[in-house]
Design goal:
By secondary structure, the protein is an alpha/beta fold. The protein has a single domain, classed as Phosphoglycerate mutase-like (Rossmann fold, 3-Layer(aba) Sandwich). 35% of the residues lie in helices and 18% in strands. It has six helices and six strands. A six-stranded mixed sheet has the order 3-2-4-1-5-6, with helices on both faces. It is globular.
Amino acid sequence: MRIDLLRHGTTGRDGYLDGRTDRPLNELGWQQFRRQTQSRIWSSVVSSPLARARTAAEDYAAQTGCALDIDADWRELDFGRWDGRKRQDVMAEPGGAALLEVFYADPAIAAPDGESWVDLQSRVARSADRIVARPDASPVLVVTHGGAMRAALSHLLGWPLRQLWSLRIHPGTRITLEAGQGGGGVPWGEIVEIMQP
């Protein structure tokens, strides 16, 4: 089946650790979303419940009449005490740069009072598995976040989480996959297209 992973458009907060912090799309963010979805048809849309993804997904579903599923497993990583703060401000704190470095280098390390990349991958994998197990192989659009997209790619392609930082996923990026389940329900996937905004 074809799955398109689409990172929500920009909110104008580049450089912030916005996980659960939920700012709305700005006008450029809406333009990015519309560019990636115009003249494209999906049978269903799955969306993160965070408004910066959900609002655009709801708009697309309303315009096309396709099914919409709001799935909490596609939320962005919870950055805990860092959430909503500028990355540079966290790095400027005593020991902050070292903590951030370890957090990004070791997927099992959680943000303070937050979530680890392994935790994120676990919940995204649940939803990705539900999608590829659908009996109807119609194309699906997933409107989500950069971290959740990396977790999905790691799960479906078998890539180590720590290597996914080499893949740039700007707001508005769409990655098209062919995906399915092999023997024993093991997921597989391959990248068909990457469309940067």
